[in-house]
Amino acid sequence: MQEPVTFQVNGKTYTEHCPPGTSLLTLLRDLGWVGVHRVCESGDCGSCTVWVDDRPVHSCIYPVMKLEGHDVTTIEGLATDELAPIQQAFLEKQGFQCGFCTPGMIMSAAKLQYTSLAELRKALDGNLCRCTGYEAIVESILAAKEQRSQPCLGQNPVGKSVPKQDGPAIVKGAADYTADWSPPGLLHIKALRSPYPHARIRTIDTEKAKALPGVHAVFTYEDVPRKPYTTAGHADPVPDPLDHYLLDNKVRFVGDRVAAVVAESVAIAIQACQLIEVDYEVLPHVIDPVKAMNGGIVIHDEPESSQIYDPQRNIAAKVTLGTHDLEQGFTEADLIVENTYYLPAVQHVHLEPHISTSWLEEDGTLVVRSSTQVPFHTQRVLSQLFDLPKDKVRVFKTQIGGGFGNKQEILTEDLCVLATLRTGKPVQWEFTREEEFTATNSRHAMQIRVKTGVKADGTLVAQEMEAIANTGAYGNHAPTVVFLTGCYPLGLYRCPHQRFIGLSVYTNTMPAGAFRGYGATQGTFAVESQMDEIAEKLGIDPIELRQKNIIQPQDIIRLGREEAHDHFHLIGSYGVPECFAKVTQAFNYVPGMKPTVDGHLRRGVGFAVSMQGSGLAKIHSAGVKLSLKNNGKYELRTGAIDVGTGADTSLRQIAAQVLGVTVADIELIAGDTHHTPFDAGSYASATTYISGKAVNKAAIAMRSQILQFAAKVLDTQPENITLTADKVLAPQQEITLQELVAHNQQPFVVEVEHAANESSLTFAVQGAEVEVDIETGRITVLRCVQAIDVGTAINPRICRGQATGGIVMGLGYALSEELLINDAGRILNPALRTYRLPTAKDTPQMEIFLVEQPDPYGPFGAKGIGEIGTNCTAAAIANAVAHATGVRLTQIPMTPERVWKALNA
Fold it and tell me: 404-434, pLDDT tens digit by residue?
């Protein structure tokens, strides 16, 4: 233990003894200043930024031993009675979504020096954000010195940019994330992970680990029930292979779980993991999915696993779509174009890591506090794994620091619960950033072959797509992701003869899973790249080619599995023509527009189109409970999950619109299996469309219930009653809502469940302008314009935030992001410093158009928007590069090296 250190935090004096090597971040969180967030612990993200004597530092790499006599200011100490100007600006301009990066971003922003927008963006290099696309952050910083504006909190809130209701807590560092509270007596888990991509455990000796002081339990495959399950949070019955085990005697990728240690501290648990002795039988491995199908190496040879399509050939799932005559279609074609496109594995990089805390209540209820997108699916899986009644398993979420699909997995909750049940004590498991990169999930790497036959006038007559997806060591989401790879990108265009064959193939790499866009992102890149190539070969404008072939309002999409022809998506509202018009007008685009040449620089523009369903028709369901309380205010209970998307605000807007109140008049309780009705969770662009429709129905029923009862009390007809924010009015008489509640012997309560029969399609058109340096291969994206057919924008600012965040996520996919895996199956860049996320200086000028034509099925005409913004970006950039240089790139990311090689091929 080092010498005591005396210092101040937010004006309070401390004297602390800390072990050598303790970081300021760890000390601050131990002292209760939890607005300082743990993300990378390498000084790369800025989420832990504080001031030491008024100078911003990354507290994760600032040693406590240097703290003697210094003053520390955290986000909690930035302001006292009123918000600081920079906090107020972030609140008003909504410079946050999930909010996990926001305290550090604000502490850095308050000290920035800049004289231009470019300097400001460069100065933000030390702070990363995965949600916003930085646009709102830059606007917030610029607005910090401007006159304050008044937030929109009035009645009739649908269609207005009502501030996110979690905003005040986020900008003050008071938002409650999973790691910010722990029950007394907490134990911690660390996992011993496999050093080999494929091996069988001959023997495993845990005695030394168990003997280490502070260790409470060590678990191996010998100590756990052997039940196959999937980590994917899906509706029951699950479509995925059941091929995962709590712990197994076989490991299938570098980073797979071998054993788990439960100890009094993380440090002790790590030390104990190093004491476990394992004798491995190292097995041949395969990391290429094409080679994996050739036989010889069988990754899942265990007899207990089920729902695997062809384990001997490592095919986890196969999807076939389309039933028409391809041979006839290609015979009719005047031009046939065929290419193979290569898409990488990329990581979600939500800044809050996976984390769960579990404990037992006095009545025996198992409680799991988790950063999860799917509390109810997690409850079901835990109940099944441990033979517990569902009503004895409570799963709930607090504030969530991003997810993007990766928290649709049960990755920490299972072993946490095992440890709590075995020790009887509270247990927490928080992943490191390296574990996020190496032991969670990625977007599916794919190679996609597309062959298209077309008439000379541009009419599509045949399309064939074959996708081989690397699902990694386990098959979570294997069939469903690959299904969407073909369904949406091919379904976007009218073509009489279409066929899609998709294979999800096991390899000895980290599993792939759900990721924003969910397979449609990969398929969109391939199809939209090929559409531009066809247009070039036929001498037809690429916009004209798309408009000629895109589906029309009268079309019903029936590109479904052969064994389930009734799977379809529905075109409700249709704003596609206006989307095309908005984007082309923004670029002053005219057919035949030539690229710009300026020495070694080439400028060009490119376009792409995408569609995405809103929720899962006949599958995704949401329940809502709405009550009128004794104080005359409303309480809304929903199982829906806000992962930074603003759902908690948008759902309140829908209810408030019906009930004639403000958003602030509605108390929200969300995402708790014991205190809210069932909701399938946050995925598939479903929350506004499906959970929002349930809220809409509940509010209408509540309004009717109030009017009916008020009519009896006031001795009149319901049609004579007017409901206001705090009272009901009738001719010459009125009664407050509080008085009305007091009159009623029964509570005013409505419970509604909604499962959509339709999945209305959201469309997006995107244009990109790029500059390519032909001497270096460097691509600079100058401008992105996106028009989204949203139906109705419940909250325009939230919708725009989803769009800009989606574009920048697509920008990283297009230009820089890629999980690099060597021949031994090891990920080479498992850190923020080497993974290359876009930063503020990388983001182009962005313009978003929300095209509003109300949908007949969504609440107030709204459709899903969470995923669509990501799908088009990479294809639009690739098409712009081809326009600028004449070179067609079929592999992303389009790194300078790849571009330079293609230019010089």
Answer: 999 999 999 999 999 999 999 999 999 999 9
Tell me the two tokens of residue 296.
């010889």
**Residue 861: DSSP 8-state:** G
Residue 421 and residue 642: Cα distance in Å, rounded? Answer: 29
Instruction: Write the single-letter amino acid at 270.
Output: I
Query: Residue 2's pLDDT is what?
Result: 73
- Of 702, 694, 697, whose CA–CA distance to 640 is shortest? 694
Strand pairing partners for 769?
Answer: 605, 783
Q: CA nearest 366: which of 407, 425, 316, 308?
A: 425
CA distance 92 to 557: 41
Does the global pTM surpass 0.90? yes
Model pLDDT for residues 453-512, shown as the tens digit of each residue:
999 999 999 999 999 999 999 999 999 999 999 999 999 999 999 999 999 999 999 999
Q: What pLDDT, on a 0 to 100 scale, did the predictor assign at position 555?
A: 84
* Pure H helices in 215-296: 266-275, 289-292
Torsion sign, CA atoms 841, 842, 843, 845:
positive
Name the pLDDT band for 329 (thresholds 50, 70, 90). Answer: very high
Supply 322's token pair. Answer: 């389309």
CB neighbour list of residue 156: distance below 8 Å, 6 or more residues apart: 657
Q: What is the mean pLDDT of residues 524-528?
A: 98
DSSP 110: T
**Cβ contacts of residue 116 below 8 Å, gap of 6+?**
none
Q: How deeply is 181 buried, as exposed, middle or buried, from its count of CB atoms within 10 A (0-12, 13-18, 19+)?
A: exposed
Number of H helices, E strands in the chain: 25, 34
* Percent of the chain with pLDDT strictly greater than 70: 98
- Tokens 């040693």 locate to 63
Partners of residue 393 on adjacent β-strands? 366
Q: Which two tokens stand for residue 516?
A: 């924003």
d(CA 656, CA 650): 10
DSSP string, 135-174: HHHHHHHHHTTSPP------SS-TTS-PPPTTHHHHHHT-
Label residue 390 by pLDDT band (50, 70, 90).
very high
**Tokens describing residue 161:** 């940019």
**pLDDT for the residue 295:** 81
Cis peptide leading into residue 20 (ω within 30°): no
Give the 3-state secondary structure of residue 796: helix
Nearest to 515 by CA among 349, 391, 401: 349
Mean pLDDT value across residues 443-462: 98
Mean pLDDT of 782-787: 98
Instruction: Convert 736-753 to b/e letters by CB count within 10 Å (16 or more is b).
Output: ebeebbeeeeeebebebe
**pLDDT surpasses 50 at 573:** yes
DSSP readout, 291-306? HHTTSS--S---TT-B
Side-chain half-sphere of 210: how many Cα atoms within 13 Å? 9
User: From start to end of 620-661, where are the E strands?
Assistant: 621-628, 634-638
Which residues are CB-neighbours of 656 under 8 A, at least 6 positions away?
155, 157, 662, 663, 665, 666
The pair of three-digit structure tokens given for residue 692, joined into one six-digit string: 């929002």
Q: How many CB atoms lie within 10 A of CB 476?
A: 30
Closest CA to 902 of 888, 892, 419, 720: 888
Buried b (16+ CB within 10 A) or exposed e, 90-119: bbbbbbbbbbbbbbbbbbbbbeeeeeeeee
At position 219, the amino acid (one-letter code) is: F
Dist CA 662 CA 706 (whole Å): 17
pLDDT at residue number 571: 84
Supply the pLDDT for residue 733.
92
What does the block give as tokens for 241?
């292979």
